[in-house]
Amino acid sequence: MHRPAARKLYLYLAALFITSLVVSNLIFQKFFYWRPFDWEVFGMPIFELSVGILPYPITFLITDIISEIFGKKSANQVVVAGIFASFFSIGILLLAGVVPAIDSSPIDNATFHRVFALSPLAVLASMIAYLSAQFVDIRIYHYWKNLTQGNHLWLRNNFSTFSSQIIDSTTVILLLCSFQVLPWELFWGLVVSSIIFKILVAAIDTPFLYFFVWLIRRRFDLKVGEEIRLD
Asked: Is the alpha carbon torsion for 5, 65, 205, 190 positive or negative?
């Protein structure tokens, strides 16, 4: 009875997920200071972060919502769609880089190249890390969901997100340094900064997960642990 509305909700969540993922890959080259504490690792400040990290935690919140409401299969489908969209964005960037700018273009070839030339490598590194992290996130989430029989939402949300964020941050920064997109001297500072930031965000987003899950369950008359099947 609620299937059309459920499909629409799933579509909107998938759109937010894919947008957050692709945008985070495109804006990664700008860095900012986020220093609640003046900490250093191997002499490097650990709260220097890429702006690409800002939309990224949203992807894990959305996959947790989809996992909780629509199940493991639907969450995996969104992950695969995100991978496809990211690789498609690589093709668009490569094509845009080949097309020469006209003399009156506000953005000339050199500026475009400086901003976006490394984006395909960043997307590739991000996708390798993201693929590993998201599937780990979904797998751990459903392991705890089954173990707790649908109870203790905070437990599976945080356990799955903490584990996957460590994998994601370490892998993507390792690959970016290996591809010489980032200098190796930033490695530990960025890894520790990213993990701390993402874990804090994961803890902060737990009330939001509870709220959205409660709202959706109420809308679709779902019991705790009950999922909507779209197929």
From this structure: negative
The count of structural domains within the chain is 1
Q: What is the pTM of this model?
A: 0.79
What own/partner pairs with CB < 8 Å and gap ≥ 24 does 60-63 have? 60/134, 60/137, 60/161, 60/164, 60/165, 60/202, 61/205, 61/208, 61/209, 62/13, 62/16, 62/17, 62/20, 63/17, 63/134, 63/137, 63/138, 63/141
Q: Where are the alpha helices (DSSP H) in 99-186?
A: 109-116, 119-147, 153-178
pLDDT mean values, one per 10 residues, the chain (231 residues): 84 92 75 63 64 77 89 88 85 86 88 74 72 80 82 81 81 82 80 79 85 92 86 75
Tell me the residue range of the domain where 56 lies: 3-29+41-220
The tens digit of pLDDT for each residue in 68-80 reads: 899 888 988 998 8
Q: What is the CATH number of the domain that holds 51?
A: 1.10.1760
pLDDT at 34: 63
**Residue 94 main-chain phi, psi, to 5 deg:** -65, -40
Q: Which residue is associated with the tokens 């498609």?
A: 88
